[in-house]
Design goal:
Elements lengths: L16 E6 L7 H15 L4 E6 L1 H4 L7 H17 L8 E4 L5 H10 L4 H5 L2 H6 L8 H15 L5 E4 L4 H18 L7 E4 L34 H9 L17 H14 L3 H7 L5 H27 L2 H29 L6
Parallel strand pairs: 1-2, 2-3, 4-5
Length: about 350
């Protein structure tokens, strides 16, 4: 496990506020639902103020994106979030590019970083694999992520363990700014996703996370997959030569992945799932997992279709959320500019 001492500012306290963003990559898959989106819906019902963003500025870090596809993906992601229970009355849900202060603060924070710091960022090598040249946006996107959170004085950042380096950079950026100009930003701390969602893997390759970046679409279940598509994908999911259903992520990662998925769908522990299906072999067990997925996704898919039937309304929701977000962002940027000499004292 990746560990690090979380920095705490003892001179100034900040009210708890969670910030999280998701890229508009089209319809989310079950990994998104159980990893990020379910955490959002739990947080919005807690006593922590929540600011959630569709981070379209991060989607243009690669220069050859489709304009038409990006616009459609923003609509689809908005509809998907609403269908999964994200409630604009309980949180701020907005489109990143509608709040120009993100780019302004990112520039100020970029000027406090070095190329060497960003070159050694863990995910950069993975993201630039196979590229002849590295787009500047890929170097700078971790700082934009830091600006996303710090602009709202975010104290809590929902992440998986693989995203911890991003939170650590946010802490470093906040500390660098605060030491030079005075305390403006909190030091964000990670809210780690725990439980089976951490182990939800690709159905065809359990060494990889369930992700849209994997070349085989059969390895993930998208929220808009038809019942037949869901059954087919789970039926073809990788298992092993042992017929008994057990939960052992180390020795039997493929079968454990199905159990993890089933436990998330049924909201039961992996051991409870295994105890309840001892009469099934893995072949018959797959059918049970598939039916659970079909049942859980049916109401989500119904709401998704309803939201997508009125795309103009989706933009109105984002516009309203963006106005609320700008109220916070404007105050923070003004404070940052004032202490750093770019506005009257």
């Amino acid at each position: 496990m990746c560990t690090r001492q979380i920095m705490v500012d003892t001179k100034k306290s900040f009210p708890r506020r969670a910030f999280s963003g998701i890229q508009p990559t089209g319809v989310p898959h079950l990994g998104n639902l159980f990893g990020a989106i379910r955490q959002w819906t739990k947080l919005q019902d807690s006593d922590i103020e929540c600011v959630f963003s569709i981070v379209d500025l991060h989607s243009v870090t690669l220069p050859h994106y489709s304009v038409k596809e990006l616009r459609s993906n923003i609509e689809i992601m908005t509809a998907s979030l609403l269908a999964c229970g994200v409630d604009p009355d309980k949180c701020i849900l907005f489109l990143q590019s509608r709040v120009p202060e993100h780019g302004q603060l990112a520039w100020i924070l970029c000027c406090l970083q070095t190329i060497a710091q960003l070159q050694h960022f863990p995910q950069l090598k993975e993201k630039t694999s196979g590229m002849k040249e590295t787009p500047l946006g890929l170097y700078l996107y971790p700082v934009l992520q830091a600006a996303d959170v710090l602009l709202y004085k975010g104290t809590d950042v929902p992440v998986g363990e693989d995203q911890l380096p991003h939170v650590y950079l946010m802490q470093d950026v906040a500390e660098t700014f605060n030491k030079r100009f005075g305390t403006v930003f909190p030091s964000p701390k990670p809210l780690l996703v725990e439980g089976p969602a951490v182990r939800l893997r690709n159905l065809r390759d359990p060494t990889k996370k369930m992700s849209k970046s994997h070349p085989d679409p059969k390895g993930r279940i998208d929220l808009d997959d038809t019942p037949d598509e869901i059954r087919s994908k789970i039926r073809k999911a990788l298992t092993d030569f042992t017929s008994r259903v057990t939960y052992d992520p180390e020795a039997r990662p493929a079968v454990a992945n199905l159990v993890a998925l089933h436990s998330l769908l049924m909201e039961r522990s992996p051991q409870e799932i295994c105890d309840s299906v001892q009469h099934l072999d893995t072949g018959k067990y797959k059918a049970e997992v598939a039916e659970s997925a079909v049942q859980v996704l049916e109401p989500i898919q119904r709401r998704l279709r309803e939201h997508l039937s009125d795309r103009a309304h989706l933009w109105k929701i984002l516009d309203a959320g963006s106005l609320r977000a700008r109220e916070i962002a404007t105050r923070t940027l003004e404070e940052a500019c004032r202490v750093s000499g770019m506005a009257p004292a």
